[in-house]
Structures are given as structure tokens and as C-alpha cells.
Amino acid sequence: MKTQEIIKFLAGMYSLLNNTQWRNGTQVPDPWGTTPAGLLTYTRYGYIFAVMNSMEPEKRPLNLTWPPGEQGSVEDWALIAKSSLSYSGPFGLNTSVPLTKFSGQVLHGPVVTGSMPSMVGVVQRRNYTVVERDGEVYLSIAVITTQVGARSEIWWRRVAKG
């Protein structure tokens, strides 16, 4: 299957189901807590948009509004920042690894904008697995960060075909 056909197959909006993380082989709590939320969008034109955050009330101070003003403490804003992640930019496929529409490696980036400044300008390598079951499409994205011995497996369900 050609890369453009795989990109077209992956295109769509996905809703976050869960995230499992490990540090140095030991499972650790999800930074988004027990009630994560998020959307992952791949366009058929080769762009990715990702946003993930916690929906736990203790991680979502209700006194904060946008744009930021005088309300809320630095600690309240830090709590939001610590339990949120967003980024966007182009995406493609790593053609140096085996690729099918059901598995391979997607390259997010170089990231154009993101909530983590260290992600901007960097290509994020993500192994993917697609499972089709009962008319639904599920996407697993495996994130491996060798610098800190971290690994995440994030499961998404497609909610709209792109």
C-alpha cells in the first residue's frame, strides 16, 4: 500500500480512550488521571492536531477563564499546564520501517506549535497499530522516549473519518 493511501486511511478525528505509561519498565499513573480526554486529528493533507487533558475536577480549577487575567493563582495555572498537552504540525510516515494501514510508524512534525516548548521543531516518532472491530476503528499510538526511559501506549477511537 502506498504511503498516500495509508495517510488517507488514517485521516480522521479520534477520541482518547486511555493512556498507559511506564518509566524504566514500571507502570506509572497517567498524567491525565483516571478521566483523560483528548482529540487526535490526522488530515488527508498530512497535518496532525493533538490535544489531551485531565477531566478530574481536582486538576481543573473552575476559577480560571480565558484570556488569563487576575483570577486564579500561579499554582492553579500550573495544575492545568501539568495535566494538559497539545501540539500540531505536519505528519508523515516512516518509510524505512514496514508499513501497512494496520501498523507502522507515523512521524508527527516537525511540530509547529505546542504547549511544551521543547516539542516545537522536533519530529515525534510514534508506532501505530490500527484495529477494526464491529464497525469501529481503534488506533494505538506507542510513544517511546528513550532519554527518560519512558513509554506510553495511547488508545484512540475514530469518531469521524477524514
Description:
Helix content is about 10%, strand content about 50%. The chain contains 2 helices and 10 strands. β8 and β9 form a beta hairpin. The two termini are about 20 Å apart.
Largest sheet: 8 strands, antiparallel, barrel
Give unreliable regions as ranges. Answer: none
Q: What overall geometry do the principal axes of the alpha carbons give? A: globular
How are the strands of the biggest sheet laid out side by side? Answer: 1-3-4-5-6-8-9-10
Please state the average pLDDT score. Answer: 90
Order of helices and strands: HEEEEHEEEEEE
N→C terminal distance: 18 Å
What's the helical proportion of residues? 10-25%
Q: How many DSSP helices?
A: 2
Beta-strand content bin: over 45%
Task: Report the strand count.
Answer: 10
Structural class of the helices, strands and pairings? mainly beta
Rg (CA only):
17 Å
What does the secondary structure layout of this molecule look like, with pairings?
Blueprint: H1 3-10, E1 12-23, E2 26-28, E3 36-42, E4 47-54, H2 74-82, E5 84-93, E6 103-108, E7 113-114, E8 124-133, E9 136-145, E10 150-161
Antiparallel strand pairs: 1-2, 1-3, 1-10, 3-4, 4-5, 5-6, 5-7, 6-8, 8-9, 9-10
